[in-house]
Amino acid sequence: MYPGTYEEFHWGQLHPDDPAPLHDTRAKGPAPPKPAAPTDGGRAKTEAPAKAKEDRKAEWTARREDEIQARRRKREESARRRRIEDLENRIAEREQTVRDLEATMAAPGFYEDREAARPIIDRHQALMWEVGDLMGQWEALQAVEEDSSAT
After folding, report:
1. CB 145 within 8 A of CB 81
2. How far apart are CA 10 and CA 54, in angstroms?
3. Shared-domain flag, residues 29 and 84
4. Strand runs (DSSP E) across 37-117, as ranges?
5. Upper half-sphere CA count for residue 48 (Cβ side, 13 Å)
6. Would you say 130 and 92 are in contact if contact means Cβ atoms under 8 Å apart?
7. Residues 6 or more apart from 53 whose CB is under 8 A from it?
8. Which domain holds residue 51?
């Protein structure tokens, strides 16, 4: 898409260094002057238009890379937040189970039958280790989150 007429587009292609203002020839005055026919069959190109084209391409590429990086960072932040939320939910569930086991272990006579008490005690210990591991993961992700939000 070009925001002008075909003549304006064609003239702009032949004269890329001339900053002639774009205007709508249907609504205002005459069309821009038509270029003279090139004497070499249209093959003459100066280095300046090629350089300007390379500069525009480099600028577009840099902008595109910046956009891609921004989207990638946004996806990573979103995934990290989801992971933090998942860890918080898992920690809360495990802590609730630990509290339930501790209530069972605090019941009178619980330790009288050692064989019946052993699986509950082992489960309690395993859950405590798991909560510790989950907390470590959560803390690491929180540190990354804080670092990324500070920048």
Report:
1. yes
2. 19
3. no
4. none
5. 6
6. no
7. 16
8. 45-150
Of 39, 40, 41, 33, which is closest to residue 10 (Cα–Cα)? 33
Handedness of CA 7, 48, 53, 71 (dihedral sign): negative
Angle, vertex CA 70, rays to CA 67 and CA 75, nearest 5: 125
Q: Are residues 54 and 103 in the same domain?
A: yes
pLDDT per residue as tens digits for the range 75-119: 999 999 999 999 999 999 999 999 999 999 999 999 999 999 999
d(C-alpha 8, C-alpha 118), whole Å: 87
What length is written for the chain?
Answer: 151
Query: Read out DSSP for 127-146?
Result: HHHHHHHHHHHHHHHHHHHH
* CA 68 – CA 76 distance, rounded (Å): 12
Interval 22-49: pLDDT, tens: 554 444 555 555 555 555 555 555 567 7
109: left (phi over 0), alpha (psi -120 to 50) or beta: left
Q: Contact, 11 vs 35, CB < 8 A?
A: yes
Domain co-membership, 36 together with 55: no
